[in-house]
Design brief:
heterotrimer, A mainly alpha (about 325), B mainly alpha (about 220), C mainly alpha (about 675), A: about 325 residues, mainly alpha, about 0% strand, C: about 675 residues, 3-stranded antiparallel β-sheet, two-stranded antiparallel ribbon, 27 helices, 8 strands, globular
Chain lengths: ~325, ~220, ~675
């Protein structure tokens, strides 16, 4: 009984942390991009204000849409939260690590994407269909690259359980600098850019419907629904950054429940995520958005990087 | 040299070799001629680093000169020459392909596997070397194959030069990995050969451009009859 | 024997049509339930059922033998038959009087009986007899609407392909008989060790081709997309759900039971290659289809590929000596057989309901059905989520198991395995994502948005029995996804008996959780996951309440860039939806399109543009047409033997007689 209570309490605390940090990370990315563009930019807390404003607004629902349209924001937000519970951010092992492994996480992302794509088609608008079609096409070529990068990471640890991967890696710092890991990290980084819809794959700040991918699917959402979906994409960014930093450089993670370890853990997590967010912003500022049919080439590079890691270090080396 | 010292040098060499291979793949995946030259410069810097690490780790002094020469000539001088050439010819920066990028990336991945098996069979004959040596050797053979691939499937005359230089990088790296460097005379000789080759190829590209108003090698076919 | 007695129904054409129809399907329903119970008893007790039918002079005694594997497939057949029989009660109500319902009933029950016969046969002759009856009944069922030329062509193609397969099976059984001296499956068991390696490989190849044609692997799949749409929808569900699985049953029986544990590694590699190409090409072709049932048929090819990935991996691991890993792979493959039967049956029943209500299979004509047919669309959505392998439904569990089995393969130090495994993993991920894309298209264009034609506007909800059948299958999707331990604990001893390995590592920890012992702490708990997904939606609801108060909604028209009225034709089309994928994989599709703009005076007002898009069927052009050309050519050359003169025929007889006399000396 005690175990269940502690599990629930720690999971709730974890959720609160992720929920609170997500808009801040997006704020950091936007601020860095603004600085690169020689602007002062909005404050890093602006996404919080945006969300608060959206929650208070009235929801306008298309008369064409069905129950799916209204259920999707809750489903997507819920699945993001479940993913956040499974990914190690501050503590390893995560209390619920036995519920799902990395493959479960990947397919939970797919669940959210499936329903958002359906919601795009639900309103009967051409833009929604455009967004859904592009999103599903890009997702289909992202998945093999992601799976191969994860495969490389899990082969070293001998398991697909995220907490085990993180633990095994943090036990040997030298293994973190293994070129196989660096190559897989580079591959997964490119995958992250594609999955979270950043330049050069998709522009999260565009207002031109024909250049949208993710934004086009959620064009018809407003008010509370839009707030939930925006927040869900921000959580997705944080979770992916946590995945990247902790699967490849699990430094400073708390192994016990002592207050000191927890503080170090939270601090390390914030630092790693901020650094990665700044790198994402820099990459976004230095590149232009790719044409839709050039995106497969980029993802093929990601695929090859992971394949190289496997070939050089596991097929031949070991 | 303490064993951990050797181990960390080995790890750094590993990382640089992986970086060299990644730059080769990035060359295959680019469409912009300027990128080709910059990536090649990066590749040569990493190559020089590998040579320097070999000097530090194994104390073979004569490689120091080769390492410095690599960095100066291949990472600085040749890229400057090639960039100047591009500006003089005012060529279009887009590179044409006979095999598209996705398929060429997959083929180069296959070539890495082939290079690995060749490296394994070479090293099976000599008993020395651990897996680090075999990895660097396979990277070098892969580099040679990828350089040849670049020469075969890209349509601008300048890319032929880059391909040839990539192959030469591969040769140098393979020399480093098996015998910890070749005799100094051989190294210097190769360097001067490469320099002259680049200069002559440069002159050729210039003449091709003057005759055909483009450096697309498909145009060379009209010389046939 | 309850089952067999219950499966006969009179071929009645009386005016008591309704009563006869209800009676026929109810009998089928009852006997299917009996079949389920029988299979459960055998699976749980572990004791096989052995029945001798009687002696024949040539072939020894005919046997029916129901062991674990047969019981599993019997259970799957019966489970799906229960739902389809319930469905048929409502579906066949409005069949036009031209088609005799009695014939349908007779063929339907005969089909079910023959499938059961195939899996419970313990003797080669019984097996082939049941196999042949299965092929014939399906031939008649496919050509049920025989006034459609497409149906006639599909039936003809089907019967040719299936008999080619049967020919290969004959060769295989005769070879097995030559080396064991008997036709019974008991004698065939582990007979691989008695045969020389070449003969073993011959049997393997004959089984692969023969059963593969029935299962629909690439390149033998060409009959599937024609035949499944042509049959009535309840029959399509059965064909796609369980008939092609009899091919898998045959393969598993021959590979693991007959040919024994001592097998070469290239068999596994061949099956993996076939599996990977079937799954990727199957889903790619499915993406280009706009006929709902053809789309589902191509997806069956894809899922057969996924099943064969598990089986191929099991073969490969057995050949390399790793029995526990092989067991996990086999369990993954068999689990997917069960899951695919359930969700593909559900999807075909849904497609049948759509066809029934709108009289159109073309999804470009549909749309907005979610309001007209709410229950059908809900259950179809569950089927779509299941087939896209999304948690927490059953498709996710079997794909997860397949991934884990493949990932474990990396521990084997063989070079071929180490290269094959990552490639298979990457391609399986590709298939899964493409399948999800295809079902977003299929569900979204068919059910969501505005109706694109009169067909869709006048649709109505299906009858209660049809909805009940679909509901039953959806429930099973959820149950098998949330409680995988139940299924795996049944499959575990089955795999152990087939592979001869003692799988001490328990995979199913309890009903709701699966763990892989060979991989440290890798586990999933779909039950808990599902619970969380449901419970955690409280969080956004409460957040919304806290920050925004009560939800204020207002209905308005969809944003149309300022246009006042949105036409249904302004929506995205299915062709447009799949265009990015067509362009990305253009090398595989080799699509050709032609655009014809009708001539008018002004270039600004064009009343008619015709756009035709064709994806070339590679296999038809490059494989089958040359082969059929060669066959026809040699047949034409043989025709010269038929001179029409009586005397030449007498001469043939005379020459043959002389030769035989010389030989018999």
């Amino acid at each position: 009984m005690n175990q269940i209570v502690t599990t629930i309490a720690t999971s709730l605390a974890h959720l609160v942390l992720v929920l609170a940090i997500a808009p801040l990370v997006t704020g950091v990315v936007r601020k860095t991009k603004a600085r690169f563009q020689n602007r002062r930019g909005a404050s890093v807390l602006q996404p919080y204000f945006d969300l608060a404003k959206l929650f208070t607004k009235e929801v306008v629902v298309s008369s064409v849409a069905s129950w799916l349209f209204q259920a999707t924001p809750y489903l997507v937000f819920g699945s993001m939260l479940v993913i956040a519970l499974l990914v190690p951010t501050v503590i390893t092992p995560v209390p619920l690590h036995w519920v799902g492994d990395i493959i479960t996480v990947i397919y939970l992302f797919a669940l959210g994407r499936f329903f958002i794509a359906l919601a795009g088609l639900d309103t009967g608008s051409a833009f929604g269909g455009l967004g859904s079609s592009r999103e599903m096409s890009i997702a289909s070529i992202v998945e093999p690259a992601m799976m191969l990068a994860i495969f490389t990471a899990s082969v070293t640890a001998g398991s697909t359980n995220l907490s085990i991967v993180v633990e095994r890696l943090s036990a040997s710092p030298l293994a973190m600098m293994n070129p196989a890991h660096l190559l897989a990290f580079a591959g997964l980084f490119i995958v992250m850019i594609a999955e979270t819809g950043r330049i050069p794959v998709d522009n999260p700040a565009t207002h031109l419907e024909l250049t949208m991918i993710h934004e086009a699917m959620i064009l018809e959402y407003s008010g509370r629904y839009l707030a939930l979906i925006e927040w869900a994409s921000q959580i997705k960014l944080v979770v992916f950054l946590a995945l990247l930093s902790n699967m490849f450089f699990p430094v400073g993670m708390a192994a016990t429940w002592s207050p000191w370890a927890l503080t170090v853990g939270v601090g390390a997590f914030c630092l790693k995520v901020t650094v990665l967010a700044v790198i994402v912003a820099v990459i976004e500022s230095m590149n232009a958005k790719l044409r839709l049919f050039r995106v497969p080439e980029l993802l093929m590079v990601a695929f090859i990087l992971s394949l190289l890691a496997l070939i050089l270090y596991f097929i031949i080396g070991a | 040299m303490s064993p951990t010292h050797i181990q960390s040098i080995g790890l750094l060499i590993d990382i640089c070799a992986a970086a060299i291979l990644v730059t080769a793949f990035l060359i295959v995946s680019s469409r912009n001629l300027g990128f080709y030259i910059r990536l090649f410069a990066l590749q040569s810097i990493f190559l020089g680093l590998v040579a320097l690490l070999v000097v530090i780790g194994y104390g073979e002094m004569h490689i120091l000169i080769a390492a410095v020469l690599t960095i100066v000539v291949k990472a600085v001088a040749i890229p400057i020459v090639l960039t100047k050439m591009i500006d003089r010819i005012q060529v279009q920066k887009e590179v044409g392909f006979s095999i598209n990028i996705t398929v060429s990336l997959l083929l180069c991945g296959g070539m890495v596997i082939v290079a690995d098996s060749v490296a394994q069979s070479i090293l099976a004959v000599q008993e020395g070397g651990g897996s680090a040596v075999s990895r660097v050797l396979s990277v070098s053979i892969a580099l040679m194959l990828i350089g040849l691939f670049i020469m075969t499937t890209r349509k601008k005359a300048l890319t032929q030069i880059i391909g040839l230089l990539t192959m030469e990088n591969g040769v140098f790296l393979s020399g480093l990995s098996i015998t910890y460097g070749m005799p100094l005379i051989v190294e210097v000789g190769i360097f001067f050969d490469i320099l002259i080759a680049v200069l002559i190829l440069g002159v050729f590209v210039f003449r091709i451009n003057k005759t055909f108003e483009s450096i697309n090698i498909d145009a060379l076919r009209s010389l046939r009859h | 024997m309850l089952i067999i007695a219950g499966r006969r129904s009179p071929n009645s054409q009386s005016s008591l049509n309704t009563a006869g129809r209800n009676l026929g399907f109810t009998l089928a329903l009852l006997s299917s339930i009996a079949g389920c119970l029988l299979s459960l008893t055998i699976l749980l007790s572990g004791a096989p059922l052995h029945v001798e039918l009687g002696q024949t002079p040539l072939f020894g005694s005919l046997i029916l033998h129901v062991d674990g594997l047969s019981a599993l497939f019997l259970g799957i057949i019966s489970l799906l038959a229960v739902s389809v029989s319930v469905y048929s009660l409502g579906y066949t109500k409005d069949l036009s009087p031209r088609h005799a319902v009695g014939t349908l009933l007779f063929l339907y029950n005969g089909f079910l009986l023959s499938m059961v016969g195939v899996v419970i046969a313990g003797h080669a002759v019984v097996f082939l007899f049941a196999w042949e009856v299965m092929s014939l009944t399906t031939y008649f069922l496919i050509s049920y609407e025989h006034e459609e030329p497409a149906a006639r062509r599909a039936a003809w193609l089907y019967v040719v392909m299936t008999h080619i397969g049967t020919a290969f099976l004959l060769v295989m059984f005769v070879t097995l008989h030559t080396y064991t001296g008997s036709f019974s499956f008991d004698a065939f068991k582990d007979s691989g060790s008695h045969m020389p390696a070449l003969v073993r490989s011959l049997v393997f190849l004959c089984a692969t081709v023969g059963f593969g044609i029935k299962a629909g692997i690439i390149p033998f799949h060409i009959w599937l997309p024609e035949a499944h749409p042509a049959a009535p929808s309840n029959v399509s569900a059965l064909m796609s759900g369980v008939m092609i699985k009899t091919g898998i049953y045959g393969m598993v029986r021959v590979f693991f039971d007959f040919l024994g544990p001592d097998i070469p590694a290239w068999w596994g590699v061949l099956i993996l290659v076939v599996a990977v190409s079937s799954s990727v090409l199957g889903v790619l072709y499915a993406l280009m289809e706009h006929d709902l049932k053809r789309l589902l048929a191509y997806h069956s090819i894809e899922n057969i590929g996924i099943i064969l990935m598990g089986i191929g991996a099991a073969l490969l691991f057995t050949a390399l000596g790793s029995k526990p890993l092989a067991a996990i792979a086999l369990i993954a493959g068999l689990y997917h057989v069960l899951n695919h039967a359930i969700f593909k049956g559900l999807l075909f029943l849904g497609a049948g309901s759509v066809l029934h209500a709108t009289h159109s299979r073309n999804i470009e004509d549909l749309g907005g059905l979610v309001r007209k047919m709410p229950w059908t669309s809900f259950f179809f959505l569950i089927g779509a989520v299941a087939i896209s392998a999304l948690p927490p439904l059953n498709g996710f569990v079997s794909e997860w198991l397949t991934f884990q089995a493949l990932l474990l393969g990396f521990q084997i130090s063989d070079l071929t395995v180490k290269i094959a495994v990552p490639l298979t993993v990457a391609l399986l991920a590709l298939t899964g994502a493409l399948a999800a894309a295809c079902f977003v298209k299929a569900f979204g264009i068919t059910f969501l948005g505005l109706p694109r034609s009169v067909h869709a506007q006048t649709a109505h909800e299906s009858s209660p029995t049809m909805i009940a059948a679909m509901g039953l299958l959806s429930l099973l999707c959820v149950v098998f996804g949330v409680a995988p331990g139940l299924v795996v604990s049944v499959l575990d001893p089955l795999a152990a008996s087939l592979l001869g390995a003692n799988i001490s590592g328990q995979i199913a920890l309890n009903g709701g959780m699966l763990a892989i012992p060979q991989s440290t702490s890798t586990s999933i708990a779909p039950a808990v996951l599902a619970g969380f997904l449901v419970a955690i939606t409280l969080v956004p609801i409460s957040i919304g309440f806290v920050f925004g108060g009560k939800l204020r909604k207002r209905a308005a028209m969809t944003w149309g860039c300022g246009l006042e009225k949105l036409e249904p034709r302004m929506q995205y089309t299915a062709t447009g939806f799949s265009k990015p994928i067509r362009m990305i994989f253009s090398n595989i599709y080799r699509a050709t399109h032609e655009i014809e703009i009708s001539e008018v005076s002004s270039p600004y007002f064009q009343p008619e543009v015709r756009y035709e898009l064709k994806t070339e069927s590679v296999f038809l052009t490059y494989l089958y047409e040359p082969v059929s050309r060669v066959v026809l050519k040699s047949a034409r050359m043989m025709r010269r033997l038929q001179t029409g003169h009586l005397q030449s025929y007498l001469a043939y007889i005379f020459i043959t007689l002389v030769i035989l006399l010389l030989f018999a000396r």
